[in-house]
Design brief:
heterodimer, A: alpha/beta, Rossmann fold, seven-stranded mixed sheet, 14 strands, B: 371 residues, alpha/beta, six-stranded parallel sheet, two-stranded antiparallel ribbon, 13 helices, 42% helix, 10% strand
């Protein structure tokens, strides 16, 4: 072997030409997709109605056709066609070298995928449930998000981890994890939580094209949701909230499945003449605090809705940032609606009360919107 | 499997290392002595508080790092645990970059962001020391997975083999077992190199691993080749590793190696070593890998040696290495500290975008000195 001889001299002077607009050289030559402004994206109206799971599948398949370095691995993704049928048919198109069934060993295959990403591949790791990612906490939290930093800028880790997050429906406590509060705490990662098929496709395509580790959180309860998803290719940039509904009485801030609870609550409130802004954050790291502040400047009130536990949650982070950036615009204390602060119960009635829901959101709004 | 059929001395004993030229073995001696001297100086610097955190000394195990890296190609990926200075040097990292990293300096191999346990050297295909026991095993499996994917799916690379070094403490972690299962299932060309120094921190092998007399059986149960050998004799290391590497490369299969070795120092710099006797340490020092190789190289060919080194040349080599290490220390001492203004929040994201953090504005930092 011929090792590379490093030239180390005592006259070392660091190269401080800080690059901000370029992709870090650690991930090699990198081509970003073209990002359009929200109003330039293809229409959300149309009759090409597909399920959320199909939107995810289209995103992965399109990117796998574009780039052979992209591959999918996880439990039951190939022969079984996906435990939740997200990857249905992908084995037939891409073959077993790129759609890879793994044994039930999240620690092993997540770590393996991270090593593959360091070597220049672009893995998509499917966790059947983010609840099962807890046994892979070391690779996904200790390796992936820190690799670029710990190696002093030598290796990045372009990888997507995706799967179901949050209560599925009477799955009990161990299978109902919302990992966003825990995992988004770690710098070096990006986190995406889409609420609808259109965004899911555009955001997952962006995630696969992003050179950083992206944690992509889906919901078992939404995989069957249907909406128009356009034929043409589009990418949704990270860090841009979407205003779902407009009003001046209160701002409702949420992401993922609870966005629907907010819409339900906003509708109920509107019947009483209370009109709300509803913001779908879409990504929580980055968190589009600018859009939240802009809305609060109009409403003076805010309720943050988050399906993870309240203590040290994304809601607490959001409320903190609101206090830092919009304190003077607030006419009432910022509120948060989380799940109740107990392990997820099994019984249907208990689970319904445990989760954030329209009723609890309405109550929170009414408490401050007078 | 390729086996050397001729040897430097024209005998037919077919030890792969016999086929190597004298210069190669002299380089091994040099590199092992460099590690030994470097580590002695590292301990001194640690005691002077120039080095912080945890620091794990490699002295005694040099034949493993140097012999194993000699058995693979330069572009075969290697990943390590936290006792990683020796492998970094064996792979070709400049001692100054290694020492500067431990000093927490900007010119260290990770710009002072990694430390003793996290040695990375991209130009030399060294994918890091890793601080969590056994974390490197799935990673190394992934390096080899990618190498195979690049060769097989992308058609863009040669057949490669990855080396994943682990200590005996890692034998008991699930990550190793999951990695071995995956490697065998998928046909991943990775060799798990167990540097079995007999202690998981302060717990002796028989006290931490069940059925520890039959470690090879564990790997074989996963359907991979497993070999065990003495890791104190570097020629023996190469003789076993080279054919195994060639076989794993050729067949694109994993393997496991149980290499018996010994560390002269404690687990880390803070280890009083009450779990072993001085006599035990001395008994291993009598079989010292460096002294043995030097003796072999000095012994005349007619007596089975190489006769390519004199006592004076050996002393001169040691002197030169001593100076190299002193230069590394001086370099590290004089190197600039990372400036918090330009280094603390840099190299966190490859594509820093707005609002990733409530407190940081991320960007790219100074270019890594190794790149």
């Amino acid at each position: 072997m011929t090792p590379k001889e490093h030239t180390m001299t005592t006259a070392y002077t660091p190269d401080l030409s800080i690059i901000t607009d370029e992709i870090h050289p650690a991930v090699g030559p990198w081509e970003l997709p073209v990002f359009l402004e929200e109003h330039e994206l293809p229409s959300r109206a149309g009759d090409r109605v597909i399920q959320f799971r199909e939107a995810l599948r289209e995103a992965m398949s399109e990117e796998m056709r574009r780039d052979q370095r992209v591959f999918l691995l996880g439990e039951e993704v190939a022969q079984y066609n996906g435990a939740y049928k997200v990857s249905q048919g992908m084995l037939d198109e891409f073959g077993e070298k790129r759609i890879i069934d793994t044994p039930i060993s999240e620690n092993g295959f997540a770590g393996m995928a991270i090593g593959a990403a360091m070597m220049g591949l672009r893995p998509i790791v499917e966790f059947m449930s983010w609840s099962f990612s807890l046994v892979a906490a070391d690779p996904i939290l200790n390796n992936a998000p820190k690799m670029l930093y710990m190696s002093g800028g030598q290796w990045g880790c372009p990888i997507v981890f995706r799967g179901n997050d949050g209560a599925g429906g009477q799955l009990g406590s161990t299978h109902s994890w919302c990992v966003e509060g825990l995992f988004s705490n770690v710098p070096g990662m990006k986190m995406v939580i889409p609420s609808n098929p259109y965004d899911a496709k555009g955001l997952l395509k962006t995630a696969i094209r992003d050179p950083d580790p992206v944690f992509f959180l889906e919901s078992e309860r939404m995989l069957g949701d249907r909406a128009h998803v356009p034929e043409e290719e589009y990418y949704i940039p990270f860090g841009r909230a979407r205003l779902m509904r407009e009003g001046d009485a209160c701002t409702l801030v949420s992401w993922g499945r609870p966005v629907h609870f907010c819409m339900e609550a906003a509708e109920a409130l509107a019947a009483d003449g209370v009109e709300c802004d509803v913001l779908d954050m879409r990504t929580i790291r980055p968190l589009d605090i600018d859009s939240i502040v802009a809305s609060i400047q109009k409403t003076g009130r805010v309720v943050v809705v988050d399906q993870s536990w309240p203590f040290g949650s994304v809601a607490s982070e959001t409320v903190t940032q609101i206090c830092e950036h919009a304190f003077d615009w607030l006419d009432a204390p910022p509120m948060r609606v989380n799940t109740r602060d107990v392990p997820t119960p099994y019984a249907k009635g208990l689970e319904a009360v445990y989760l954030p829901n329209a009723g609890r959101i309405v109550e929170a709004v009414m408490e401050i919107a007078r | 499997m390729t086996q050397a059929t001729t040897t430097a001395r024209g005998s037919s004993s077919a030890r792969p290392s016999d086929a190597l030229p004298n210069e190669t073995l002299l380089k091994w001696l040099h590199d092992m002595q460099l590690i030994r001297d470097f580590e002695a100086r590292t301990m001194q610097m640690y005691q002077q508080a120039k080095i912080g955190g945890f620091c794990h000394i490699y002295s005694g195990q040099e034949a493993s790092a140097v012999g194993c890296t000699a058995s693979v190609n330069h572009d075969d990926p290697i990943v390590l645990a936290y006792r990683d200075h020796g492998h970094a040097l064996a792979r070709g990292m400049h001692p100054a970059a290694c020492m500067a990293e431990m000093f927490g300096k900007l010119s260290g191999c990770a710009k002072g962001k990694g430390g003793s346990m996290h040695m990375f050297d991209k130009p030399n295909w060294l994918f890091g020391g890793h601080g969590i026991v056994s974390a490197q095993n799935p990673l190394g499996t992934g390096l080899a997975f990618a190498a195979r994917y690049q060769w097989e799916v992308l058609g863009s690379g040669p057949k490669k083999v990855a080396l994943t070094f682990l200590g005996d403490g890692a034998l008991d972690q699930g990550a190793l077992h999951e990695a071995q299962n995956l490697a065998s299932l998928f046909g991943i060309p990775v060799i798990y190199v167990l540097e079995n120094n007999g202690y998981s921190m302060g717990t002796a092998l028989h006290r931490h691993t069940a059925n520890c007399e039959n470690l090879l059986d564990r790997a074989r149960a996963y359907g991979m080749k497993a070999i065990g050998f003495d890791g104190l004799d570097i020629r023996n290391v190469y003789d076993h590793m080279k054919p195994l590497v060639d076989e794993c490369r050729d067949l694109q299969r994993p393997a496991f190696v149980d290499m018996k070795t010994y560390r002269y120092q404690g687990h880390s710099m803070s280890d009083p070593q009450k779990y072993r006797t001085k006599e035990e340490v001395e008994s291993f020092k009598e079989r010292d890998s460096i002294a043995n190789l030097a003796a072999y190289l000095m012994k005349p060919t007619e007596e089975g040696g190489r006769g390519c080194l004199t006592e004076d040349e050996w002393k001169a080599m040691q002197k030169e290495i001593r100076q190299t290490v002193l230069d590394a220390v001086e370099y590290a001492s004089n190197a600039p500290d990372p400036d918090p203004a330009t280094e603390l929040a840099t190299d966190t994201y490859a594509y820093p975008i707005k609002n990733l953090s409530p407190s940081e504005h991320y960007s790219h930092g100074a270019k890594n000195p190794l790149l």
